[in-house]
């Protein structure tokens, strides 16, 4: 699905290439993809508009956050312009971002242009059209804000690979210990109060797990105690407030969060406490950093960001989301998962291992399906490095150098032209040979699931680690319980899940 920088993309491919062979899929229509040569898709102007300066940006911001709200905001524009590639403003706009204008990509065919770092610049675009102050990251532009063309990108990413590699032998035992703690907390609360919020125990488990696995350091034994998650949440709020809503009354929420930057000195001490903890725990990684020509200080700010922002925030968003989708799917799926997981563990001598999990096709598919239906990081940005052509299912569009592309991932991975019953949680969607063919349309890691993260791309450095720990979570959950019931709410960072009951393993 490559695009070219020429304005004349081409070659005809049937839409069957977008789906595994399946007799229940309706007969395909022909579409084209851009390859050198001629095209059958029409070249169109990108529809949509930015409105009047200032006013247009504020209007789009209010529409995006409050009325009609995010998903409807995009859905209405798609209907209005009959296009999945549209011009619009994205928050925050004035007075935080000087240029809110973007081209939004809302289908699974145009979205992957964001992974091609020869076409898009990923410099300072992690959070979109604004970048949080570097005062929040020790004065450094940390890895996630660097474009691969910047010399430090490869070095810092190698350092994160080193960190992940050295955690390899600790992941299984430490995960079991930390998440046994989580389950025991939930059980105790459910027994005492009839329900338990998943959120706080999940954050505590994730923070302890990550630090024990990465640095062999137990936060509870240090000055941090149990405060790590709350320090991170506050620090993240100062970075992400321009693109979050806290559910306050509309104009107050907008004024407080989206109009001015919250001054970073309010979290200086919190950050310092996290930094001191990472600094004291990560000597062996700092040694490696020095060998690579990086300073110990820069390494530590990057380790902090990778652990507390990339990894912790990712797990904080994704684990409740998994519990939500699996919980909503109900008892039948729970029984099937418990049967699959327990029988494989049994035939593996009672042990859960990487190889054992490979033999659990339903469990693996469930994790992928949760990543598809609600990608934990829903927004991806990239600035056109040169004039280029992007292609949706319906048309070809020209983009000028310097224009900002914005992919809204939940629409790309729920593209009905790629996924059947795209809006539904289909637990076995990625199972079997046909299911696995769909993995190339799973984009949660800022790249197709079938591709590898490298020092030269911008795919999540923790891609395999995330899949591993998510599989571990579902396996441990159904090793321990036959079924569970939940109640749902929403938070600024995703699902808020309350556990109502948990039925211990009966077989
Ligand atoms: C559920 C958990 C996670 C999710 C959903 C997630 C998702 C992502 C996404 C979408 C990006 C690309 C952002 C962009 O440039 O637009 C990214 C980048 C990154 N992630 Fe993850 N991530 C997770 C966990 C982790 C973990 C465990 C680590 C390892 C410590 C990690 C390290 C990184 C790093 C270092 C980058 C920047 C890569 C680069 O600059 O080339 N992430 N992640």
Structural commentary:
The chain has 507 residues and is of the alpha+beta class. It has helices spanning 55-65, 70-81, 151-166, 171-193, 199-215, 228-240, 250-258, 268-281, 283-291, 296-329, 331-347, 354-358, 361-373, 409-412, 432-437, 463-480; strands at 12-14, 30-32, 43-44, 85-89, 101-105, 120-121, 196-197, 379-384, 388-391, 396-399, 404-408, 481-491, 494-504. Strands 4-5-11-8-6 form a 5-stranded mixed sheet. Helix 10 crosses helix 13 (361-373). It starts with 11 loop residues before the first strand and ends with a strand. The structure holds protoporphyrin IX containing FE. Protoporphyrin IX containing FE binds at residues 122, 126, 143-144, 146, 157, 160, 306, 310-311, 314-315, 318, 376-377, 380, 444-446, 458, 460-462, 465-466.
Termini separation comes to 47 Å
Q: What molecules are bound to this protein?
A: protoporphyrin IX containing FE
Order of helices and strands: EEEHHEEEHHEHHHHHHHHHEEEEHHHEE
Structural class: alpha+beta
Average of per-residue pLDDT values: 93
CATH class: Mainly Alpha
The total domain count is 1
Q: Return Rg in Å.
A: 23 Å
CATH architecture: Orthogonal Bundle
Classified in CATH, the superfamily is Cytochrome P450
- Fraction of residues in H or I helices: 40-55%
Number of DSSP-assigned strands: 13
What is the CATH third-level topology name? Cytochrome p450
Helical segment tally?
A: 16
Give the strand line-up of the largest sheet.
4-5-11-8-6
Question: Strand share of the residues?
Answer: 5-15%
Low-pLDDT stretches are 1-34
Q: Outline, from the CA principal axes?
A: globular
Largest sheet: 5 strands, mixed
């Amino acid at each position: 699905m490559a695009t070219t920088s020429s304005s004349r993309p081409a070659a005809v491919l049937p839409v069957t290439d977008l789906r595994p062979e399946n007799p229940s899929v309706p007969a395909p229509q022909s579409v084209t993809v851009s390859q050198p040569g001629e095209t059958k898709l029409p070249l169109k102007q990108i529809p949509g508009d930015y409105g009047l300066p200032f006013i247009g940006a504020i209007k789009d911001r209010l529409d995006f956050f409050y009325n009609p709200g995010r998903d409807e905001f995009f859905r209405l524009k798609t209907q209005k312009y009959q296009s999945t590639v549209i011009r619009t403003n994205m928050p925050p706009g004035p007075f935080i971002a000087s240029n809110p204008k973007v081209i939004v990509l809302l289908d699974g065919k145009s979205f992957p242009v964001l992974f091609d770092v020869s076409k898009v610049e990923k410099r300072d675009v992690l959070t979109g059209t604004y970048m949080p102050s570097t005062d929040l990251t020790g004065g450094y532009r940390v890895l996630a804000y660097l474009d691969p063309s910047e010399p430090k990108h490869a070095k810092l990413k190698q350092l994160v690979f080193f960190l992940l590699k050295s955690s390899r032998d600790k992941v299984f035992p430490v995960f079991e210990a930390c998440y046994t703690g989580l389950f025991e907390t939930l059980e105790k609360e459910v027994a005492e109060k009839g329900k338990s919020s998943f959120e706080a125990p999940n954050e505590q488990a994730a923070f302890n797990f990550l630090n024990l696995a990465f640095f062999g350091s137990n936060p509870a034994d240090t000055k941090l105690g149990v405060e790590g998650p709350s320090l991170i949440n506050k620090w993240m709020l100062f970075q992400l407030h321009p693109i979050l809503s806290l559910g306050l009354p509309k104009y107050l929420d907008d004024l407080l969060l989206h109009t001015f930057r919250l001054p970073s000195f309010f979290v200086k001490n919190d950050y310092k406490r996290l930094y001191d903890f990472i600094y004291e725990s990560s000597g062996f990684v700092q040694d490696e950093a020095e060998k690579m020509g990086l300073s110990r200080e820069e390494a530590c700010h990057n380790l902090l960001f990778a652990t507390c922002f990339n990894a912790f925030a990712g797990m904080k968003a994704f684990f409740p989301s998994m519990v939500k989708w699996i919980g909503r799917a109900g008892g039948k799926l729970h029984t099937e998962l418990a049967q699959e997981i327990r029988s494989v563990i049994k035939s593996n001598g009672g042990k859960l291992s990487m190889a054992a999990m490979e033999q659990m096709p339903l469990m693996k598919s469930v994790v992928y399906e949760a990543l598809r239906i609600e990608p934990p990081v829903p927004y991806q940005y990239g600035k056109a490095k040169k004039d280029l052509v992007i292609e949706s299912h319906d048309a070809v569009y020209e983009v000028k150098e310097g224009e900002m592309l914005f992919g809204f991932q939940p629409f790309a991975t729920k593209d009905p032209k790629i996924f059947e019953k795209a809006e539904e949680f289909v637990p076995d969607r990625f199972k079997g040979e046909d299911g696995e063919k769909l993995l190339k349309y799973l984009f949660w890691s800022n790249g197709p699931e079938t591709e590898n993260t490298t020092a030269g791309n911008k795919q999540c450095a923790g891609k395999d680690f995330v899949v591993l720990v998510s599989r571990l979570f579902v396996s441990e959950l159904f090793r321990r319980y036959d079924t569970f019931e939940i109640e749902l709410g929403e938070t600024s960072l995703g699902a808020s899940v309350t556990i109502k009951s948990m039925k211990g393993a009966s077989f």
